[in-house]
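dumping this here before i forget
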Amino acid sequence: MVQGATEVETASGPSVYLRKEVQENGEVFFYCHSEQREEKERAMQESSDQKFTAQLERLQAGLSRPRRIKRLDKVHQKIGRLKQQYSAAGQHYDIQVIPDDQNPQNAKSITWKHHPKPGSKATHPGVYCLRTNQDQWDESTLWKTYITLTDLEAVFRSLKSELGLRPIYHQTSRRAKGHLFLSVLAYQLVQTIRTRLRAKGITDSWNTTRDTLNDHKRVTGVYRRIDGTTVHVRRAVSAEPKQREIYEALGIDSAPGGVRKSKA
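structure:
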Protein backbone atom coordinates (compact mmCIF):
# COMPACT_ATOMS: atom_id res chain seq x y z
CA MET A 1 0.00 0.00 0.00
CA VAL A 2 1.20 3.53 -0.79
CA GLN A 3 2.24 5.21 2.48
CA GLY A 4 0.14 8.20 3.53
CA ALA A 5 -2.50 7.31 0.94
CA THR A 6 -6.17 8.25 0.95
CA GLU A 7 -8.73 5.48 0.46
CA VAL A 8 -11.17 6.06 -2.40
CA GLU A 9 -14.12 3.76 -3.06
CA THR A 10 -14.69 2.52 -6.60
CA ALA A 11 -17.98 1.85 -8.37
CA SER A 12 -17.19 -1.87 -8.63
CA GLY A 13 -16.58 -2.27 -4.89
CA PRO A 14 -12.83 -2.64 -4.03
CA SER A 15 -11.13 0.54 -2.83
CA VAL A 16 -7.99 2.14 -4.25
CA TYR A 17 -5.44 4.15 -2.29
CA LEU A 18 -4.07 7.42 -3.67
CA ARG A 19 -1.29 9.73 -2.50
CA LYS A 20 -0.80 13.17 -4.00
CA GLU A 21 2.65 14.67 -4.67
CA VAL A 22 3.24 18.10 -6.23
CA GLN A 23 6.43 18.27 -8.32
CA GLU A 24 8.77 21.26 -8.64
CA ASN A 25 7.54 21.97 -12.18
CA GLY A 26 3.95 22.26 -10.95
CA GLU A 27 2.91 18.85 -12.24
CA VAL A 28 1.01 16.63 -9.83
CA PHE A 29 1.66 12.91 -9.38
CA PHE A 30 -1.01 10.67 -7.87
CA TYR A 31 0.45 7.35 -6.75
CA CYS A 32 -2.29 4.70 -6.74
CA HIS A 33 -2.48 1.26 -5.20
CA SER A 34 -5.12 -1.36 -5.93
CA GLU A 35 -5.18 -4.57 -3.90
CA GLN A 36 -7.10 -6.30 -6.69
CA ARG A 37 -4.52 -5.21 -9.25
CA GLU A 38 -1.70 -6.24 -6.88
CA GLU A 39 -3.06 -9.78 -6.64
CA LYS A 40 -3.32 -10.01 -10.43
CA GLU A 41 0.17 -8.60 -11.07
CA ARG A 42 1.75 -10.89 -8.46
CA ALA A 43 0.21 -13.93 -10.12
CA MET A 44 1.38 -12.77 -13.57
CA GLN A 45 4.90 -12.09 -12.27
CA GLU A 46 5.14 -15.48 -10.58
CA SER A 47 3.96 -17.22 -13.74
CA SER A 48 6.51 -15.35 -15.86
CA ASP A 49 9.31 -16.13 -13.37
CA GLN A 50 8.47 -19.83 -13.37
CA LYS A 51 8.45 -20.04 -17.17
CA PHE A 52 11.69 -18.08 -17.47
CA THR A 53 13.61 -20.14 -14.89
CA ALA A 54 12.25 -23.37 -16.38
CA GLN A 55 13.81 -22.39 -19.72
CA LEU A 56 17.12 -21.54 -18.00
CA GLU A 57 17.10 -24.93 -16.27
CA ARG A 58 16.45 -26.63 -19.60
CA LEU A 59 19.32 -24.70 -21.19
CA GLN A 60 21.59 -25.61 -18.25
CA ALA A 61 20.66 -29.31 -18.47
CA GLY A 62 21.40 -29.31 -22.21
CA LEU A 63 25.06 -28.41 -21.64
CA SER A 64 25.72 -32.02 -20.61
CA ARG A 65 23.57 -33.67 -23.26
CA PRO A 66 24.31 -34.48 -26.91
CA ARG A 67 22.91 -32.38 -29.76
CA ARG A 68 21.98 -29.50 -27.46
CA ILE A 69 23.26 -25.90 -27.37
CA LYS A 70 26.76 -25.73 -25.87
CA ARG A 71 28.73 -23.09 -27.79
CA LEU A 72 29.31 -20.01 -25.65
CA ASP A 73 28.03 -17.53 -28.24
CA LYS A 74 24.92 -19.63 -28.94
CA VAL A 75 24.15 -19.90 -25.22
CA HIS A 76 24.38 -16.10 -24.86
CA GLN A 77 22.10 -15.67 -27.88
CA LYS A 78 19.58 -18.09 -26.40
CA ILE A 79 19.60 -16.24 -23.07
CA GLY A 80 19.07 -12.96 -24.91
CA ARG A 81 16.06 -14.37 -26.74
CA LEU A 82 14.64 -15.73 -23.49
CA LYS A 83 15.00 -12.32 -21.85
CA GLN A 84 13.16 -10.83 -24.80
CA GLN A 85 10.43 -13.45 -24.71
CA TYR A 86 9.96 -13.24 -20.94
CA SER A 87 10.75 -9.56 -20.50
CA ALA A 88 8.60 -9.25 -17.37
CA ALA A 89 10.86 -11.77 -15.61
CA GLY A 90 14.17 -11.51 -17.46
CA GLN A 91 14.91 -7.96 -16.34
CA HIS A 92 15.04 -9.12 -12.71
CA TYR A 93 17.72 -11.82 -13.14
CA ASP A 94 21.51 -11.62 -13.20
CA ILE A 95 22.75 -14.48 -15.38
CA GLN A 96 26.33 -15.69 -15.74
CA VAL A 97 27.61 -18.19 -18.27
CA ILE A 98 30.80 -19.96 -17.16
CA PRO A 99 33.11 -21.20 -19.97
CA ASP A 100 34.43 -24.74 -20.02
CA ASP A 101 38.08 -24.88 -18.85
CA GLN A 102 38.98 -27.63 -21.33
CA ASN A 103 37.03 -26.16 -24.26
CA PRO A 104 36.64 -22.36 -23.83
CA GLN A 105 34.36 -22.14 -26.87
CA ASN A 106 31.70 -24.08 -24.98
CA ALA A 107 29.77 -23.22 -21.84
CA LYS A 108 30.31 -25.26 -18.69
CA SER A 109 27.41 -24.03 -16.60
CA ILE A 110 24.84 -21.28 -16.20
CA THR A 111 24.03 -19.55 -12.92
CA TRP A 112 21.36 -16.99 -12.16
CA LYS A 113 20.21 -14.87 -9.23
CA HIS A 114 16.94 -13.08 -8.73
CA HIS A 115 17.41 -9.32 -8.12
CA PRO A 116 14.10 -7.45 -8.58
CA LYS A 117 14.53 -3.98 -10.07
CA PRO A 118 13.59 -1.21 -7.62
CA GLY A 119 10.39 0.63 -8.48
CA SER A 120 9.14 -2.09 -10.85
CA LYS A 121 5.99 -4.22 -10.79
CA ALA A 122 8.02 -6.95 -9.12
CA THR A 123 8.75 -4.76 -6.08
CA HIS A 124 5.57 -2.64 -6.14
CA PRO A 125 2.74 -4.77 -7.57
CA GLY A 126 -0.56 -2.97 -7.89
CA VAL A 127 1.04 0.48 -7.77
CA TYR A 128 0.86 2.95 -10.66
CA CYS A 129 1.09 6.70 -11.19
CA LEU A 130 -1.36 9.23 -12.65
CA ARG A 131 -0.07 12.62 -13.79
CA THR A 132 -2.01 15.87 -14.10
CA ASN A 133 -1.51 19.64 -14.10
CA GLN A 134 -4.64 20.18 -11.98
CA ASP A 135 -2.98 20.96 -8.66
CA GLN A 136 -6.31 21.87 -6.97
CA TRP A 137 -7.81 18.40 -7.34
CA ASP A 138 -8.04 16.09 -4.36
CA GLU A 139 -7.71 12.31 -4.55
CA SER A 140 -11.43 11.64 -4.97
CA THR A 141 -11.86 14.19 -7.80
CA LEU A 142 -8.81 12.87 -9.63
CA TRP A 143 -10.03 9.28 -9.42
CA LYS A 144 -13.53 10.10 -10.67
CA THR A 145 -12.07 12.09 -13.59
CA TYR A 146 -9.65 9.30 -14.44
CA ILE A 147 -12.42 6.68 -14.44
CA THR A 148 -14.60 8.94 -16.61
CA LEU A 149 -11.74 9.33 -19.10
CA THR A 150 -11.02 5.60 -19.32
CA ASP A 151 -14.74 4.94 -19.67
CA LEU A 152 -14.98 7.44 -22.55
CA GLU A 153 -12.00 5.85 -24.28
CA ALA A 154 -13.49 2.36 -23.93
CA VAL A 155 -16.87 3.46 -25.32
CA PHE A 156 -15.34 5.30 -28.28
CA ARG A 157 -13.17 2.27 -29.09
CA SER A 158 -16.37 0.26 -29.23
CA LEU A 159 -18.13 2.88 -31.35
CA LYS A 160 -15.26 3.07 -33.82
CA SER A 161 -15.46 -0.67 -34.45
CA GLU A 162 -19.18 -1.37 -33.98
CA LEU A 163 -20.65 1.75 -35.62
CA GLY A 164 -17.83 2.55 -38.03
CA LEU A 165 -16.88 5.96 -36.62
CA ARG A 166 -13.49 5.47 -38.23
CA PRO A 167 -12.31 5.39 -40.92
CA ILE A 168 -14.50 7.93 -42.72
CA TYR A 169 -14.72 7.36 -46.48
CA HIS A 170 -17.16 10.18 -47.31
CA GLN A 171 -15.93 12.65 -49.93
CA THR A 172 -18.10 15.61 -48.94
CA SER A 173 -18.05 17.51 -45.64
CA ARG A 174 -21.84 17.27 -45.33
CA ARG A 175 -21.78 13.48 -45.33
CA ALA A 176 -18.75 13.36 -43.00
CA LYS A 177 -20.57 15.62 -40.52
CA GLY A 178 -23.62 13.38 -40.71
CA HIS A 179 -21.43 10.35 -40.05
CA LEU A 180 -19.90 11.99 -36.95
CA PHE A 181 -23.30 13.19 -35.73
CA LEU A 182 -24.74 9.68 -35.79
CA SER A 183 -21.71 8.32 -33.90
CA VAL A 184 -21.98 10.99 -31.19
CA LEU A 185 -25.73 10.36 -31.00
CA ALA A 186 -25.00 6.66 -30.51
CA TYR A 187 -22.59 7.55 -27.72
CA GLN A 188 -25.32 9.55 -25.96
CA LEU A 189 -27.59 6.51 -26.23
CA VAL A 190 -24.89 4.31 -24.72
CA GLN A 191 -24.46 6.67 -21.79
CA THR A 192 -28.23 6.80 -21.22
CA ILE A 193 -28.36 3.02 -21.10
CA ARG A 194 -25.44 2.82 -18.67
CA THR A 195 -26.91 5.51 -16.42
CA ARG A 196 -30.17 3.58 -16.14
CA LEU A 197 -28.26 0.35 -15.45
CA ARG A 198 -26.15 1.97 -12.72
CA ALA A 199 -29.34 3.20 -11.05
CA LYS A 200 -30.30 -0.49 -10.72
CA GLY A 201 -26.89 -1.49 -9.36
CA ILE A 202 -25.42 -2.82 -12.65
CA THR A 203 -21.99 -1.22 -13.05
CA ASP A 204 -20.56 -3.31 -15.91
CA SER A 205 -18.54 -1.61 -18.63
CA TRP A 206 -20.16 -1.07 -22.02
CA ASN A 207 -18.04 -3.84 -23.54
CA THR A 208 -19.20 -6.29 -20.86
CA THR A 209 -22.84 -5.29 -21.31
CA ARG A 210 -22.59 -5.64 -25.08
CA ASP A 211 -20.89 -9.04 -24.81
CA THR A 212 -23.54 -10.24 -22.34
CA LEU A 213 -26.35 -9.37 -24.75
CA ASN A 214 -24.50 -10.49 -27.87
CA ASP A 215 -25.73 -14.10 -27.60
CA HIS A 216 -29.38 -13.13 -27.36
CA LYS A 217 -30.76 -13.34 -30.90
CA ARG A 218 -33.92 -13.74 -32.92
CA VAL A 219 -34.10 -16.92 -34.96
CA THR A 220 -36.36 -18.16 -37.74
CA GLY A 221 -37.67 -21.73 -37.73
CA VAL A 222 -38.82 -23.25 -41.03
CA TYR A 223 -41.55 -25.92 -40.95
CA ARG A 224 -43.05 -27.83 -43.88
CA ARG A 225 -46.73 -28.75 -43.56
CA ILE A 226 -48.48 -31.82 -44.93
CA ASP A 227 -50.26 -29.72 -47.55
CA GLY A 228 -46.87 -28.66 -48.99
CA THR A 229 -46.83 -25.11 -47.64
CA THR A 230 -43.94 -23.76 -45.59
CA VAL A 231 -44.37 -21.88 -42.33
CA HIS A 232 -41.69 -19.48 -41.08
CA VAL A 233 -41.77 -18.74 -37.35
CA ARG A 234 -39.55 -15.92 -36.11
CA ARG A 235 -39.01 -15.36 -32.39
CA ALA A 236 -36.34 -14.41 -29.86
CA VAL A 237 -34.51 -17.19 -28.04
CA SER A 238 -34.96 -17.39 -24.26
CA ALA A 239 -32.84 -14.82 -22.43
CA GLU A 240 -30.21 -15.93 -19.93
CA PRO A 241 -30.57 -14.73 -16.28
CA LYS A 242 -27.95 -11.98 -16.70
CA GLN A 243 -29.61 -10.83 -19.91
CA ARG A 244 -33.03 -10.73 -18.25
CA GLU A 245 -31.54 -8.67 -15.42
CA ILE A 246 -30.35 -6.05 -17.92
CA TYR A 247 -33.69 -5.99 -19.77
CA GLU A 248 -35.62 -5.61 -16.52
CA ALA A 249 -33.36 -2.74 -15.40
CA LEU A 250 -34.06 -0.97 -18.70
CA GLY A 251 -37.76 -1.80 -18.72
CA ILE A 252 -37.44 -3.79 -21.94
CA ASP A 253 -39.23 -7.01 -22.85
CA SER A 254 -36.80 -9.95 -22.78
CA ALA A 255 -38.52 -11.36 -25.89
CA PRO A 256 -38.66 -8.31 -28.18
CA GLY A 257 -40.67 -8.49 -31.38
CA GLY A 258 -42.96 -11.25 -30.15
CA VAL A 259 -43.62 -14.25 -32.38
CA ARG A 260 -44.20 -13.74 -36.09
CA LYS A 261 -45.48 -16.38 -38.48
CA SER A 262 -45.57 -16.32 -42.25
CA LYS A 263 -46.58 -18.85 -44.91
CA ALA A 264 -44.99 -19.49 -48.25
